[in-house]
Specification:
CATH class: Mainly Beta
Number of helices: 1
Largest sheet: 6 strands, antiparallel, barrel
Strand content: 35-45%
Strand order of the largest sheet: 2-3-4-7-6-5
CATH architecture: Beta Barrel
Oligomer: single chain
Order of helices and strands: EEEEEEEH
CATH topology: Thrombin, subunit H
Length: 103
């Protein structure tokens, strides 16, 4: 069962993700984002349970934000990450992006 959280937005934004420090990042597209987690389309989805480091520009002109989390489910070409504690900057970027969509 999917846990509902607000705000949730549809955002076709590019994201890079790496499984560890020094690992070559992979690229994907964010298709769903909330303050709880993110769903990503990618040709290289990581396995369930892996910790990932995500980097994305969620709001144009605001720069890149970094989000840490753990892969909750993974399918061919799609996976979801539940965030760990978010910093103020990442939380603000998610909320700000959702306000632009709902306006």
């Amino acid at each position: 069962m999917r846990r509902e959280s607000k705000p949730e937005i549809e955002v076709p934004k590019q994201v890079s993700f790496a499984l560890g420090v020094g690992d070559e990042p992979s690229i994907g597209s964010i298709v769903r984002l909330s303050v709880v987690g993110v769903e990503i389309v990618s040709f290289t989805p990581p396995p369930v349970g892996r910790e990932v480091l995500l980097r994305a520009v969620l709001v144009d002109g605001e720069g890149e934000v970094v989000m840490h989390g753990r892969v909750q489910w993974s399918q061919p070409e799609r996976f979801a990450v539940q965030f760990g504690p978010l910093g103020a900057r990442a939380t603000r970027a998610i909320v700000q992006a959702s306000q632009k969509v709902s306006a």
